[in-house]
Amino acid sequence: MSADNKMPSPHRLLIVGAGLTGSVTASLLRRKFPKEALNITFWEKSRGAGGRMNTNRSASDSRCTVDLGAQYVTATPDYYRSHESFYQELISAKVLVPFNGIIEGENKKEGMKNFTAPSGMNSIVKNFLNSSDPEDIGPSLLAHTSVPFGIEHLEMDMNDVKEIIISHVKQILPDLPEPVNSRCLRWRYSQVSRGVDGSPGCIALCNSPLLVACGDAFSHSNFDGCIDSAMSVVDTFCKITSVSNL
């Protein structure tokens, strides 16, 4: 790598784990190398970024948070001096605020500084993650087959079926670039090929205990058919169990 930090293009970097170390690493690299020279991608096993700086939010009010991992940040005098630019960046962005309260069991020494994150500790990670401008993933393309095709090829080798589907997609989209990755899924979920005669909505198979068969096969195979079937189940339940609106 040359002294002026120029990198031959393209270079791609994969960071496994979107915790504090990974996010700061990405942020620092982005400050050195533009996106044209370095693309950054994260792999994270959890639903969101944070790692041990994990923040949970109330389902009813996202402003209500609880930090399940780190609760606060403590900076020793030496660390604060050597990392002052990081602290100032987070304080200026109001991600961190000084905390002067009492922490039970803390062995605080002279010159130590405590900070908390009003929006949750994972906001620290997200701040660095956002500044790293990670690579966008995609685009992706999904090809659905017809029901008759699925029935005909259900037990065929998956690789053979995938080649048939890709070949057909290329006929429709001849300029489509070669995929980086492709996957064929054998869909074994219920697919209605012939509905129940009369579209009853549901059928009570047993009254005691109550056992009801339902789904779009008992009405119409679409979104509204599912709603109709659900409403039919509720009616059947109320009639058989003699339960009405409370």
Automatic annotation (TrEMBL):
GO annotation, cellular component aspect: extracellular region
Database matches in InterPro entries: FAD/NAD-bd_sf, RNLS
SUPFAM superfamilies in the record: FAD/NAD(P)-binding domain (SSF51905)
GO molecular function terms attached to this record: oxidoreductase activity, acting on NAD(P)H
Domain of life: Eukaryota
Protein name: Amine oxidase domain-containing protein
Species the sequence originates in: Pocillopora damicornis
Taxon lineage: Eukaryota, Metazoa, Cnidaria, Anthozoa, Hexacorallia
